[in-house]
């Protein structure tokens, strides 16, 4: 018999869920999106919240419903070899390839870069990121109370400061959010561009990677049945989801308002710093930089620890936990020195490939009870989705890379034949007939049996 959780336990689970997801990208991307969307900020925010809030919540619910004990087991619904590929790609994406280096560059861009002469920015980033990852390495190798201290003290202080900043900006706006014309694809497709911008938070893949933490906490509280676990997951997620959605809305609107004074900044880190100094002077900018740095340190330590532990479990006869930790820190340091804008640019093709696979796996896991989690259905949907997502990957590569790979030979017919390919969602139509084929395959096999 599943026990009924108390309000205090729900608050505990909700705060845990919020802590799992809220990181560097959750701060900078809404601000930058708001600056670019201008008058179209609300449709953009709606799309952003769909992928940045809704999908992560569905991902954790999917793990509860499917009774999976981790990301690798969930991927095995498609196939064991596929699960190795997907799990490694997912952890590398939320780890040393993009998300971990981004924690260092966001801290640098918000806290230090605006105070330095432009000609010294490269050297300063190298020194800052070296010190940043030395601290990350130290605490990743030596588990300590620092994570609890940062999580319980500095994160609430940071959220308090962020709340004061955003409320002040909303009460004393720099300009009207609707006074600036949307730029680029925001002019005609702000919702879909916001939907794609939500990819940058990497929260949907993170939900599959870290969802087992929340599921385990729920089971430890005495809730065992899949139906009850998924129900508690959704209830606990309501508060954290509403909080994150509220933060996204405020940051995007403040970003749109700031365009009247600062225009469109190079990235969300610069935009956040300019907003902080506008209202609270240099002291406000420095305080924001310090709190962001500590929050990002906590995120980086957690990601390094999680990635190293996962690779030790996946490949037990390879490197030790300590060796993986050192390798991931060194690699993250190297990537961080490309700079925040370059990291965001390089991450986009990978996210365009990873997210469709994540979305279809989540939706199929949620609905798996209807077809008995038949592997045939998972394969029939995943194969065409992966092929279409690979074209999205090619389409978002830098022009030089596309020319080197002669990608236009594949992209030209894809642009003609695949609906929604031009807005980065060319995988949607191939996935639908794949689902139909999989269901026919499943029920035909069931009838024969």
Indicate the radius of gyration in whole angstroms: 22 Å
- CATH superfamily label of the largest domain: Amino acid/polyamine transporter I
Share of residues in helices: over 70%
**Count of extended strands:** 0
Name the CATH architecture of the largest domain.
Up-down Bundle
Domains, number: 2
Q: Find the CATH topology of the largest domain.
A: Amino acid/polyamine transporter I
Poorly predicted tracts of residues: none
Q: Please count the helical segments.
A: 18
Would you write up a description of this structure?
The chain is mostly helical and 449 residues long. The model has no long low-confidence stretch (mean pLDDT 88). It has two domains: 7-337, Up-down Bundle (Amino acid/polyamine transporter I), CATH 1.20.1740; 346-449, no CATH class. It contains 18 helices and no strands. It is 79% helix and 0% strand. α3 runs parallel beside α9 (186-197). The two termini are 35 Å apart. The chain is globular and about 75 Å long. It has helices at 7-21, 24-37, 41-66, 71-75, 80-97, 99-111, 121-141, 146-171, 186-197, 203-220, 226-262, 268-314, 321-336, 340-367, 375-395, 399-405, 408-417, 428-448.
Which key phrases capture this entry?
449 residues; 2 domains; mainly alpha; Amino acid/polyamine transporter I; 18 helices
